[in-house]
């Protein structure tokens, strides 16, 4: 039977699932030192980093359940090195720092964050393949070597092997991190902001007013609040994913663009970019194309059933880079948004940047890269 939802929640323990709905009581009139709005991976890691940095009382609010947005539907790959072929070097450096911070969290968070270290193998079926760029740490494999790692390929292919990348179940990471947060209120929406001079003095929520010392908006796309006029262009890009039934095939980690080996002999595939599709519905033709693509490369997968199929939306700014900035014109409000296709990877390093900025007044290096005003609006 195919389930129309992401696999991630079903992999959690009952305790982890309960954390995703954590609601620590009445927050009306609260005066936290730091209020974080948004319970996706960016909000949860930011709240954790602020608490870790000793910034005082930290309160996280989320309108639904934790991980209800892009985070809960992501593939969860933490693969900076392959992005050398697609992203500018400073951004790849940021992503590398992201993976290092995930490794730190795996050590420091009670029970770990569920980080799985694994290799990445890019199949390069075209003659030009990846040859135009020669990143560090890549081992080029001839078709015989690829066939040893992946028997049964429909045709010979060269490959590019990069060791020690990683993945997480994004909801497990959210649950493990959120379990250690001082205060969480799910089911609470931020709706308005009251500003006096250059400071946010209160945030109006569905559960009453909150008067924070500082506030961080981590709402996926830029927040839409009465009293907080932000003009930062953004859109969202839908993606579909599938998880197969258990198969006899064991992939050597993440095989791009084919699939990733996950628990119980299942394969995770997809991550389409369905530009212009704004419908929240799973599109069967896209699912069929993902499954057909798998079987075209590995014919033994022909007819393998689909256990899970789902879609979700990546938040994006026009230049595909996130915003990590103070809210223009405000001294005690920050935002991070538009993490597009690498928000899981980049969350812990973004959180570290924000907590240091709040604690010590230090903006990130190359602040213009992440600035909210780089698009020309206020
Ligand atoms: C198909 C797909 C595959 C992906 N694969 C990967 C991958 O392999 N690796 C990777 O690094 N990234 C991946 N991503 C990208 C990643 O999912 C996102 O970049 C990341 O989840 C964004 O996190 P976020 O916390 O900013 O947003 P979200 O997860 O959307 O969280 C924002 C939260 O804020 C809440 N919120 C919004 N407004 C309010 C309000 N007013 N008050 C209270 N709460 C509010 C929302 O309910 C939501 O829960 C993928 C995305 C998709 C769609």
Quick overview:
This protein is an alpha/beta fold.
Question: What does it look like?
Answer:
With 378 residues, this protein is α/β, with parallel strands linked by helices. The protein has two domains: 23-74 and 172-233 and 320-370, FAD/NAD(P)-binding domain (3-Layer(bba) Sandwich), CATH 3.50.50; 116-167 and 235-316, 2-Layer Sandwich (D-Amino Acid Oxidase, Chain A, domain 2). It is built from eight helices and 18 strands. The chain has helices at residues 14-20, 41-52, 70-73, 89-108, 143-149, 170-179, 284-297, 343-360; strands at 34-37, 58-62, 77-78, 116-124, 139-141, 158-167, 183-186, 190-196, 199-205, 208-210, 214-217, 235-244, 254-256, 259-261, 267-270, 306-316, 323-326, 333-337. The strands form three sheets. Strands 3, 4, 5, 6, 12, 13, 14, 15 and 16 form a nine-stranded mixed β-sheet that branches. The chain has a six-stranded mixed β-sheet with strand order 7-2-1-11-18-17, with helices on one face. Helix 2 (41-52) links the parallel strand 1 and strand 2 (58-62). The termini are far apart. The relative contact order is 0.20. The mean pLDDT is 95. The protein binds flavin-adenine dinucleotide.
